């Protein structure tokens, strides 16, 4: 029981620091320090562990991958590939309702912090002649942007989950890609079903999408494939068991050559403040995991929780869900909860899938999730009416994951 109280104190510190807008990296390092001290790790061993975490090859590899993802995103944005993606999408002969949902999904290919703010104006324009309420627009913009959290290896949360659990990234993607489809179908049914048989609404929707900027007709699908090749190429390489670092380096080099991207902005991107934040974020998150293990906290917590007689599966769901709700950040959710939940089980694709999907659901229904806050602010929506529609489909996905786990494990 004492061990549980200690970890609750550490969790409380994490929540307080994040509420005060302290960076996630600094928050995790400070919390790791408190964790070590509470569980009997002295200052000298604690500092030594911080240093060992920083120079560990796995830490360096993960930091490298995240920095390379940031550079890839910057190159794609600065060369106009993101705009080209959207333009090619808008030329496809899609159902107008599908097109509306596809706008935030396409923008969501690149995991920008608070990226929902980029897709919000396009969603607003596409739905301008329709009877959607501001809260409906919040749901569309927020929900469909996050469908790639499960399977796109450019998302830091997925990389962290693979690193902490030890389950290969390609294996996680194979386990979790169906949930991206389920997420999209659930969102589509939930928000668009009132308009499915309404011809006037459909006509208004089409008028709204026609108001979006379009270029001349052409081979739209081929254009979309060409503008998204760095993304699907990275996924294919990871599925072929090529390391994420090598995959992104290869894709990035080809993209730089294709776009004749100059060296100067590339170097400038590397030395941006965001790079330092990525280093601290990764270091702090992995230090938390290592201090949990080095201080013996994992064993103490496992024994304490086991004494209550809870099923490991219940812990596997509730802990990531709760941490996700409290932090609103998937990286923090994975970094804090995964070292604990993985101590209760022998990590496998099924177990990690269930824990990860629970974490994503928790983050999605967190009232402090940045994308939710930005979407509500942009559409001038009511918070309560925007928040309530997220609960049922998010928790339903967890239920589906639990059913899949029971059948497939």
TrEMBL record:
Taking the record's annotation, the residue ranges forming a coiled coil are none
Q: Which residues cross the membrane?
A: 49-72, 92-113, 172-191, 229-257, 308-341, 353-378, 390-408
Keyword Transmembrane helix included in the entry's annotation: yes
Q: Which InterPro entries match?
A: DUF401
Q: Is-annotated flag, keyword Transmembrane?
A: yes
Q: Which UniProt keywords apply?
A: Membrane, Transmembrane, Transmembrane helix
Annotated protein name in UniProt = DUF401 family protein
Q: Which organism is it from?
A: Desulforamulus aquiferis
């Amino acid at each position: 029981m004492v061990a549980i109280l200690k970890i609750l104190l550490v969790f409380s510190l994490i929540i307080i620091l994040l509420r005060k807008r302290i960076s996630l990296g600094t928050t995790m390092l400070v919390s790791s320090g408190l964790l070590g001290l509470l569980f009997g790790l002295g200052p000298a061993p604690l500092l030594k562990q911080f240093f060992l975490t920083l120079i560990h090859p796995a830490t360096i590899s993960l930091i490298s991958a995240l920095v390379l993802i940031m550079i890839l995103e910057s190159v794609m944005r600065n060369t106009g590939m993101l705009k080209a993606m959207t333009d090619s999408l808008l030329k496809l002969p899609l159902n107008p309702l599908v097109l509306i949902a596809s706008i935030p999904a396409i923008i969501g290919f690149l995991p920008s912090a608070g990226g929902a703010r980029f897709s919000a104006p396009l969603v607003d324009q596409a739905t301008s002649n329709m009877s959607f309420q501001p809260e409906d627009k919040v749901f569309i913009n927020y929900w469909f942007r996050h469908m790639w959290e499960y399977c796109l290896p450019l998302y830091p949360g997925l990389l962290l989950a693979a690193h902490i659990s030890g389950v290969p990234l390609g294996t996680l993607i194979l386990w979790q890609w169906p949930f991206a489809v389920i997420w999209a179908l659930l969102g589509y049914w939930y928000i668009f079903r009132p308009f499915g048989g309404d011809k006037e609404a459909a006509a208004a929707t089409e008028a709204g999408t026609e108001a979006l900027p379009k270029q001349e007709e052409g081979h739209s699908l081929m254009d979309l494939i060409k503008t998204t090749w760095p993304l699907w190429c990275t996924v294919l390489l990871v599925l072929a068991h090529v390391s994420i670092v090598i995959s992104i380096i290869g894709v990035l080099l080809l993209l730089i050559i294709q776009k004749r991207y100059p060296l100067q902005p590339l170097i400038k991107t590397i030395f941006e403040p965001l790079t330092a934040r990525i280093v601290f974020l990764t270091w702090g998150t992995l230090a938390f995991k290592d201090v949990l293990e080095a201080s013996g906290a994992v064993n103490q917590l496992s024994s304490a929780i086991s004494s209550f007689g809870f099923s490991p599966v219940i812990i596997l769901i509730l802990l990531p869900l709760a941490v996700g709700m409290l932090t609103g950040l998937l990286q923090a959710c994975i970094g804090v909860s995964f070292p604990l939940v993985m101590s209760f089980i022998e990590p496998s694709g099924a177990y990690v899938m269930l824990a990860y999907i629970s974490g994503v659901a928790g983050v999605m229904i967190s009232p402090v999730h940045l994308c939710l806050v930005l979407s509500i602010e942009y559409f001038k929506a009511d918070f309560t009416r925007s928040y309530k529609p997220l609960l049922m489909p998010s928790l339903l996905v967890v239920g589906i994951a639990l059913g899949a786990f029971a059948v497939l494990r």
